Amino acid sequence: MLAIPYFIMLTSHGHIESEQSLCPLKMLTGFPCPGCGITKAIIFFYEGDLLKSFYYHVLGPLVPIASVFAIVVLSTELATQKNYFSSILYSKKLAYTLAVLFGLYHAIRLVIFISTHNVQQILTESIWQ
């Protein structure tokens, strides 16, 4: 998951902002899905441009950090045969809270997207150009 944005960064030659999204929902409708922009956000995080990273997706910079944390925790748990964060990571309360926050973020993102794009611009971002 962390390697794919890195390889895209190496091969994009600075044209990542103008590339078409590979998201099936965005290709069909022109509207972003909840995860749209995370790959570009990770790429800009790797390049050290945090403002662009947050612009493309607020959670984008958190993905590499959370992934490295998960690798360290899982490696430690395997080595010590103990569970350190299972009560926190497998909490229904945490899952519901994150789902609600993610849904609210996406709803706000859609409102901003619709208010800043006209129908022609939305169609341009889809395969129905």
Structural description of this entry:
With 129 residues, this protein is an all-alpha fold. Helices cover 67% and strands 0% of the residues. The protein has 8 helices and no strands. Helix 1 packs across helix 3 and helix 3 packs antiparallel against helix 4 (50-56). The longest helix is centred in the last third of the chain and has 25 residues, at 92-116. The mean pLDDT is 88.
Key terms:
mainly alpha; globular; 129 residues; 0% strand; 67% helix
pLDDT averaged over residues: 88
What is the chains' assembly state?
Answer: single chain
Helix content: 55-70%
> Counting H and I runs of at least 4 residues, what is the number of helices?
8
Along the chain, the helix and strand elements come as HHHHHHHH
Relative strand content: under 5%
- State the major sheet: none
Instruction: Determine the N-to-C terminus distance.
Output: 30 Å
Radius of gyration: 17 Å
**How many domains is the backbone divided into?**
1
Total strands: the figure is 0
Q: pLDDT under 50 segments (min length 5)? A: none
